[in-house]
Amino acid sequence: MNYSDLIQSIRKQFKFSSNDSFHLEYSSSACFVIYLDNEYDFKMLFCCAKIYHMDNVVVTVVKDVGKSCSSTSVVVDDCAEMIDENDYLGDAFKDGPQKFFFSDEWGSYLSHAGQKFESIANFRDKLRKFAVQSGFHYVLSRNDSIYVNVVCTNRDVDHCGWEVLGYVASINQCFYITLFNNVHTCRGMIRNRSHRQLRSKIVRTCIESSVCLNLGLMPREIMSNFKSTYGYEISYKVASRAKKRCVEKMYGSECDSFSMLSWFREAVLETNPGSSVVLEVDESTERFKKGFCSQIQGFKFSLHVLYVDGAFGKSKYKGQILAATRRNGNKGFFPLALCFCDSETEEN
């Protein structure tokens, strides 16, 4: 049986003529009204029944006048010969031993009105994860430093009533939910392995510990690990940006590092008397041009072997890092001079 056979069966059972117009709908624990308009919706019915462990699904036949005629039911076990649910479900929902992911708890992050969050940033993070796990999209009708109002994307189209409203309390800067309507009256969605809300901000919070232990973790490895532990697929671009956010949180951004060069100059001159630090700035654009740092006193306590080498900067500012080092008495390397410049020239 397919969708066309179901329509013909209903017309025959309720004695509808070819001129009679009607539509089909059913409901689940996650969505109040789900429409059956085509073959794809008919297949998704079995997916929904499998995901939410529904023994049977009641399909309501509704005439265009808006008055319900009657209802019939489709039992999942009886329809197993029609559709293989595993063809439409992700690995987390297929038959057999179910694998649990770290993302399973995301669906419980928002629960009731009056719920408290540490900050508004913490609420926004949990809201993103809640939407990803629940399989829907949202828009922020209001989003400022105090108030946040969130509604379903389908509010204007299907008049979906899902909504969250909250505010930041001035007494403790915590965020409180004042209104939480967790019922979707739109067509809803079936959760899959990817979600447009699954961006670098969410992934960063999930991979922080891994990046902290291994800064050499490549984006491809992050993609593979995230899929196996959280059950979602992310793009190479999202994985790369998420790693960059982790590094910036641990060590600061590249922009902040350049802004601290003046502090670095004062610190070197204070802790290493006799050193020389020169920072050159382009007068026309007021942009950093070159930085030179040398510790002259180190010549007295190192071997008479000088190593000169350079490396290319891989940040968004590019440039090169030039260094002159010597061997000390402990057979280690002592940096005598460092130069941050745009390219390696005779002048540098």
Spell out the key features of this protein.
348 residues, alpha+beta, 5-stranded antiparallel β-sheet, 9 helices, elongated
Describe what you observe in this structure:
By secondary structure, the protein is of the alpha+beta class. It is 29% helix and 27% strand. The protein has nine helices and 14 strands. It has helices at residues 3-13, 39-51, 120-134, 155-158, 200-213, 219-230, 236-251, 254-259, 261-271, and strands at residues 22-26, 34-36, 56-63, 68-75, 116-117, 138-143, 147-152, 163-168, 175-181, 276-282, 287-294, 302-312, 320-328, 333-341. It has a five-stranded antiparallel β-sheet with strand order 5-9-8-7-6. It has a five-stranded antiparallel β-sheet with strand order 10-11-14-13-12, covered by helices on one side. Strands 2-1-3-4 form a four-stranded antiparallel β-sheet. Strand 13 and strand 14 (333-341) form a beta hairpin. Helix 5 (200-213) packs across helix 7 and helix 6 crosses helix 7. It is elongated. Residues 66-85 and 87-93 have low confidence and may be disordered.
Number of strand elements: 14
What's the pLDDT, averaged over the residues?
Answer: 81
Shape assignment: elongated
> How many angstroms separate the termini?
78 Å
Instruction: Report the uncertain regions.
Output: 66-85, 87-93
Query: Helix tally?
Result: 9
Beta-strand percentage? 25-35%
